[in-house]
Design a protein that fits this description.
mainly alpha, two-stranded antiparallel ribbon, 3 helices, 2 strands
Length: 93
Amino acid sequence: MAEEKKTYGHSKAGVELTDGVLQQMAEEAEAGLDVNKLRRRPGRPSMGSGPAETFPVRLEPELRRAVDDRAAKDHTTASDIVREALREYLKVS
């Protein structure tokens, strides 16, 4: 009877992760990874001239409802509505 090889699932690329595959990956990593070959993972898109910061704001229920209603009407997010309103009020592009 053939001996079953132990598997640890599959990678996103569909490669079966066996002891041999994991050992090979570890050896490649220990030898030094070529950072130019690594894929960059997409993140949030840039906004403005630098990284965006969060800014928590408390809104009364009526104002929050109005923001959410406008976002639904415009097929966008509440955050986009608030950012656009602030840009317009503060005259900032």
